[in-house]
Specification:
The complex is a heterodimer.
Chain A (H helix, E strand, L loop, with lengths): L15 H7 L10 H14 L1 H5 L8 H22 L47 E7 L10 E5 L1 H13 L9 E3 L5 E9 L10 E3 L5 H27 L1
Antiparallel strand pairs in A: 1-2, 1-4, 3-4, 3-5
Chain B lengths: L1 H5 L3 H9 L3 H23 L2 H17 L10 H26 L5 H9 L9 H19 L2 H12 L4 H8 L3 H18 L1 H5 L1
Classes of the chains: A alpha+beta, B mainly alpha.
């Protein structure tokens, strides 16, 4: 470190940085190095899990992670196998005022075909709030989570209106438009108090519109009258 | 027996050790503990880490003695192990400093300054010590890939071929990295030359 001259670029040996680095004092191992190493070698032979079970080679660290992942995989696989995917769960909020017992959800595959028409309940003396269990329109085995429970007074009144308009309740399907993009099919109706505020629901039915019927009747009456008029005119001629 | 072993080359010593002659290992440790400590200390800049890495290097040699094949020099194999361990230790230290809120660099510097020195320091010694400290700090500011080659070449005086074998790089890459490392160090140590 006595040389602090400016650099001379005459080759690698004269490179100032090389000179500086070469002149750095040598750092030696401490006096206890070999004793510590000996201690470390002896400790290593009996340390850890491999020392406990008498393995000559130490177990690599990643082996524990691999074993953990394998165990998780096996447990998860058997947990998946033991779960019945056909179970449908209907999430219902318990109604404080209702003493009515509810039916537990049944697997759709094992139950008979659901009725296509809603079960019309007789008019209740007190304002009845209906709960409609609605399943999505997809076919095939039902998947948990596809059924929804809707409790809405507005829906109740609209359903009641539908029931009033229905002449033959067994031959049509009530289609309820929850929004413009989703069509759902009503399958069962339970009586439950409402807890959800009224949602904007529009109801379409397959019942013919009275105005359309009236117009058709008027058109046919007009055509009949025209035919009758023409028939009256012919004898005159 | 030990006197006979000291006359053997490194490759013959490791071959003896592979035949379960632990005296050969002792000779190898005695021969390489100082140069390896010097290399690792200049590379890492921390005395505690350096001691651990050198110890672990010899433990690995002891455990994996049969992994050595006489296609390369023993010193190349030894420096490769030490370099890999030192890099791993540097990564761990970096991760520790990232995770630990209380760690700051001043603590690390204190560890290096605590190397015992029994001699009383005159002014020239203090000045030399300051310059050495400055050079060591400049080395530590280099990136690892430049630092390892420049320490091997300029501190340990290894040949380009040996450095290429240890690092697994091409000879041209080694030379260019050494050159860039020196250029960076030259810029960092400019104030020393101005003095």
């Amino acid at each position: 470190m006595s040389k602090t001259h400016p650099p001379h670029r005459e080759g690698e040996e004269k490179h100032p940085v090389r000179q500086y680095l070469k002149d750095l004092p040598k750092v030696n191992a401490p006096w206890y190095f070999e004793a510590k190493l000996q201690q470390r070698l002896q400790r290593r032979s009996t340390a850890g899990f491999s020392g406990l079970v008498g393995l000559w080679r130490p177990i690599p660290a990643y082996a524990y992670s691999v074993v953990a992942v394998l165990v998780l995989g096996v447990v998860g696989y058997y947990a998946f196998l033991s779960t019945d995917p056909s179970q449908n769960e209907i999430l219902e909020t318990p109604s404080p005022g209702s003493n009515e017992t509810r039916e537990s959800p049944k697997p759709r595959a094992s139950s008979p075909a659901p009725p296509l028409t809603p079960q019309v309940m007789p008019p209740q003396p007190e304002p009845a709030i209906q709960q409609i269990v609605i399943s999505s329109g997809q076919r095939g085995p039902s998947v948990p989570g596809t059924q929804q429970v809707i409790e809405s007074p507005a829906l109740d009144s609209q359903m009641h209106e539908i029931q009033m308009h229905r002449m033959t309740p067994s031959d049509s399907i009530v289609e309820i438009m929850l929004d413009e993009s989703t069509k759902v099919e009503a399958t069962t109706i339970h009586i439950l108090p409402s807890t959800i505020p009224p949602a904007p629901v529009s109801v379409d039915t397959v019942i013919p519109d009275p105005d359309t019927l009236n117009k058709k009747h008027e058109d046919s009456a007009a055509s009949v009258k025209a035919v009758a008029d023409s028939a009256k005119e012919e004898p005159d001629k | 027996m030990l006197a006979n072993l000291t006359k053997l080359t490194d490759e013959e010593l490791i071959a003896e050790f592979q035949r379960d002659n632990e005296q050969a290992f002792t000779v190898l440790v005695g021969k390489y503990k100082d140069p390896l400590t010097n290399f690792v200390f200049r590379f890492m800049g921390d005395w505690n880490d350096c001691d651990d890495v050198v110890q672990e290097t010899f433990v690995r040699v002891f455990r994996n003695k049969h992994s050595y094949k006489p296609v390369a020099k023993f010193s190349t194999w030894l420096y490769t192990i030490a370099t890999n361990l030192a890099k791993t230790q540097l990564r761990k230290r970096k991760l520790r400093s990232l995770l630990s809120l209380g760690t700051n660099k001043a603590d690390d510097h204190e560890l290096v300054l605590d190397i015992p020195d029994e001699h009383s320091k005159t002014d020239s010694r203090v000045e030399a010590s300051f310059k050495q400290e400055h050079i060591q700090r400049a080395l530590e500011t280099l990136s690892v890939k430049y630092r390892e080659v420049v320490v091997m070449r300029d501190v340990q005086d290894l040949s380009y071929e040996e450095i290429a074998a240890i690092t697994g790089l091409n000879l041209g890459t080694v030379k260019s990295r050494i050159n860039r490392a020196r250029t960076q160090l030259q810029g960092l140590l400019r104030d020393i030359w101005n003095d």
